[in-house]
Amino acid sequence: MHFDTRDHYRHVIEMLARHCSRNEVQVAQHVLNMARVAAEDPSSDPRRNHVGYYLIDDGRPELEQQLEVRLGRITRLRHALNQAPLLSWLGSLSLITTACCAELLRHAYSTGISWGLALLFFPMAAVVSQFVLNLLSEVTTRSRTPQPLPRLDFSCGIPAEFRTLVVIPTLIGSKSGVDKLINALEVYYLGNAMKHLHFALLTDFNDAPQKQHADDANLLAYACQQMEALNGRYPCEGPSHFFLFHRDREWNEKQGIWMGLERKRGKLNALNDWLRNRGNAFCTQVGAGLEVLKNVKYVITLDSDTVLPRESAHQLIAAMAHPLNQPQYDARQQRVVEGYAILQPRMAEEIPTYGQGRYAALCSSTPGNDPYTLMASDIYQDLFGEGSFIGKGIYDVDVFSHSLKGTCPPNLVLSHDLLEGCYARSGLLSDVLLYEQYPSNYLVDVARRTRWIRGDWQLLNWLLPRVKTEDGTRTANPLSTLSRWKLFDNLRRSLTSPSLLLLLFCGLVWLPNTRYWLAFFAIILLLPTLLALAQDVVRKPPRRPFLQHLQLAMNGALHRLAQVGLRLATLPHEALYSLKAIAITLWRLLISKRNLQEWTSYAQSGARRQVTLANFYRAMWINPLAGVALLLFSYLHNPMALFITLPFATLWCLAPFLLCYLSHEPQRSKNALDDEQRRFLRHTSRQTWDFFSTFVNQQENWLPPDNYQEIPEPVVAHRTSPTNIGLSLLANLTAYDFGYLTLSEALRRTELTLNTLDRMEHYRGHLYNWYDTRTLEPLNPRYISSVDSGNLAGHLLTLSAGLPALARQPVISPQLVLAGLGDSLQLLEQHWGEAAHKNLPKLRNHFEQALNSHPTALQAELNAMRNYSNGLQEPALNHDEETKRWAGALHQQLNELCAEWALWFGWLSDSVPEMEPAPSLHWLANPPAQLMLSAEQQSLLDAASALAQERLTQLYSLQQRLEKMAQMDFNFLYDEATHFLAVGFNCDQNRMDSSKYDLLASEIRLTNYVAIATNQVPQRSWFALGRLFTVIENEPALMSWSGSMFEYLMPQLVMPAYPDSLLVQMCRAAVERQIAWGKERGVPWGISESGYFGFDADQNYQYHAFGVPGLGLRRGLGDDMVVAPYATVMALIVDPDAACSNLVALEKNGAKGRYGFYEALDYTTVRLSRGQLYVIIRSYMAHHQGMSFLALSHLLLDAPMVARFANYPAFQSTRLLLQERVPDAVELYSTRRHFETHEGTITRPASLHVSSAGWIRRSRKCSCCPMPTIT
């Protein structure tokens, strides 16, 4: 069994022992004896053989009776109520609703209303019952502790007898849609890869007026091809991991269209029949070992937009497999009466890439991953031991099929999920989550709700004493009273908004005593919020400061009030679409008998409902009409109420405008850089790239040397590390993104580096921490660094994810390459100044013309620029070194670009139709046949086509090599006792370091993420990392070891940052603290590990991890003041404006050199001569240059590397880890602690542990690893 289940059993035993004369061991022994006795009786219920039956299930009263348990009065009362929970619930609801309605009707009668009381009763009952239901739900959920469903532990493997199939029933209508579905299936697998777990698509074509559509065959062939390719990427012995089951359209007379039979329900029924050899409705089946699927016991069904989190599938299966959850079908009652044939996980909201829209944020719960909340209350599960199925969960194939056999008439059921849960009995598994995104568009949400209302009213059949079945006959309704109440409650809820609107009109216009009815509406709308606020304030955790607790309670209340305001603003529209959906459904059910299967997918709804003001006023026309009507009726019948009705009318008239504003999709936050700042940053990026173009050369075996030091004399450090190599490889692609390299040159440099890596010695897939770049020999001590290896693996996989997209991008983008040329040209003009040679203005003129040239004329402009650039080389020799260097760099760029253009587009001419965008490798490899080209042009195109095919092969080869090179073994670096990664492994001593990384705010994040994504360490290792909270500028922040920018921002250069997540807040707070520290000391800000003004015996700059007090745990952080410009460059991804201003200040202080910004400025007084304010550390470190280059591309090019990282399927499967929420209330880290140094670590007292055990690493040279010995 799972630990949580065993722990729950233990807690029950502890409680029983406290209330009886026996101790815990005796209670446990008694339970075991009861289970043994039951097991000896072959006729007894199999569930009685399990000890849990007596501890948490129906056998509990029997156990308490035998143990003579003496419970308190309140507990006994609760147990008594639990004996008839539905009676207690409905009795309370009915009693309070009746009393409230009676009082309201009495008051109306006392004011002279008699003939209208009957008219008021039904809307009043609907509104009041919803109000009472909200109050009862609020009180119940806050007064009861949710009980988890028991489950087994399948974390080490799923037994063969519980083989499970994960399916997505869906429609396919385009190749892009197929790609998304294939990607979703791959991501599900990568996060839940286990033996005996398979994944499948159940597909239909979109509805069509004819059986076959022109594109159907090609689309299905493409889907089959993609599924086979997916299986090819993940080969295995035995059956495939992935399958495709496709059905043909069938004619539906009632719908008057060709469609998939019974839509989603039909696909699942067809699958169940196929799994049990009862028929085959699938015309196409893809996947090897189909017969093995006939042994599938459970099916996990998901929607196409549902996120199945990592390591969650086996938890669902383990819960279904637990003996107490096994479904018991009663043939007489024709339904499951005990256990569950369906388990529904709890649903949560995922954070979209650019954050939630305003509407979604207002209507949904807080999005993201919440590791601090393990369970949530649910009225039905907590009170009645039975949840509601919403179509995403796991079911038992045999019992599910048997319980639903023959129950549903054809073309009647649209929302089948709730009905299936009623027949097959659904349970809520609230400690397992699935994620989806809440609609950001109000109109899309309305379309979804309308579909739900229609589906609920189409289940009217099951509220009758006798129900119509599949064969048309009627039988006694087999549903339980609870199930019927669920169906009725949905219908009642759909009438609440129309009823409230009617009461509002009556109370403000017709009924006497307007103030009384206004008070009634205020109570209905506001009392639940006020009661929740009161409960929140009273229930303060003992260690939370009162003001913080009060602020949290007020924030929750304000959110509720905002939802009430939104409900009031949309009330007329909500009433209209509810009544419309009900009327349409009743017409179709009772009169036309047609179109009951009408359904529009969520994606199709979003595409059809554009967010424009006209669309919203067109859709919500009832709102302004209701506002005008309210004013008119008030003026005619109750003029004194105009001052009350005017705000309502104004709100309703403005509601479409408000909802349109709230429904705008969130976009990537645009930085507010002006042209001068952008130019400054692009110049910096061009200079930074020049470091790699200069030093990553043949002499260095195409590896980046660790650093280049200008004083006391120029020296290149001929050594490199995995982090340097990974950043250098990403720099090649980044230079292509900026337009500094052609595609051919970027691929060439990448391939040369990979060729070198193939020749280097590895250890379990890892590179050693240091190599000589000339001999390629590892440097002593031979050491594996967790951080360095993780950086390299992450960067290799990011690069591999970026290469396939290059095949479909323009092989040469004029806008991109001209921007890159412009940077070099501006730098040359800047250094040459006013005394520039006459060719330079002419080159500039041709450059300006090229910006507006047609692609066919661009080659002439490029050639002209190259000619003028050639004429600049000799004059540049008479000027300073920088002028000469940039003249040469510009000329090299033009030469490469002209040669590349001639290779790819030499066949272009004015006679060729304009192509926007420029052709891609895919287009060139397979050009269309209808181009009208001359023989010479066709010859050039054929050559370009052959070259494109070579490049495509090269791209694929590089992708495979990068992924293979990233296959590193992290298991031997993982400590299973603490769930931490060690700092490293000394290969010479064959010993893992005793120091561990145990803080989330550290550079280990990327390594940990990669190791989890590649299924080498469990997900719990991420949550084991400590989160030490502090407060900076009244905002929570996480502390790191040294408080350096490197620890906070280095992983964020490639990892996605989800708005309002803990990691984003952590980085923002760190940058704010860095800025504040710089102001306190009166110097530019930006502190991180870097070189400083100290030398070794060979006159090499020394290196140290510097940081900021208040952010770092390490002592003495305020003793040094070394400002590293690369720290500010990295901060561009967090606060672009402040970082750019700081970089300008650093440049004025002389911090910029020929390869961008220098390593550091040392302001530490003890290292300065008298009168010196600071000294510049005139060196460039490869990994700092690489991080700077990535940060500049992040800001200037909209984070292309982050997008590539996020597109890698294994990283997608782990993305929820990056969506961790900021906790509502944090317990701040206390500095009262004892430090005890030991081998570079400190031990924390147990009372201060935030993670599960206690080492924090001490940062060393570069990547927290020993410096190499250089001989």
Automatic annotation (TrEMBL):
Protein name listed in UniProt: Cellobiose phosphorylase
Coiled-coil region(s): none
Alphabetized InterPro entries for the sequence: Glycoamylase-like_cons_dom, Glycosyltr_2/OpgH_subfam
Compartments, as annotated in UniProt: Membrane
Main location class: membrane
Species in which this protein is naturally found: Serratia plymuthica
Membrane association type: Multi-pass membrane protein
Keywords: Glycosyltransferase, Membrane, Transferase, Transmembrane, Transmembrane helix
Gene Ontology terms: cellular component: plasma membrane
Transmembrane domains' residue ranges: 86-109, 115-136, 494-511, 517-534, 616-636, 642-662
Segments forming domain Glycoamylase-like: 1005-1193
One Pfam family cited in the UniProt record for this chain: Glycoamylase
Any one GO molecular function term: hexosyltransferase activity
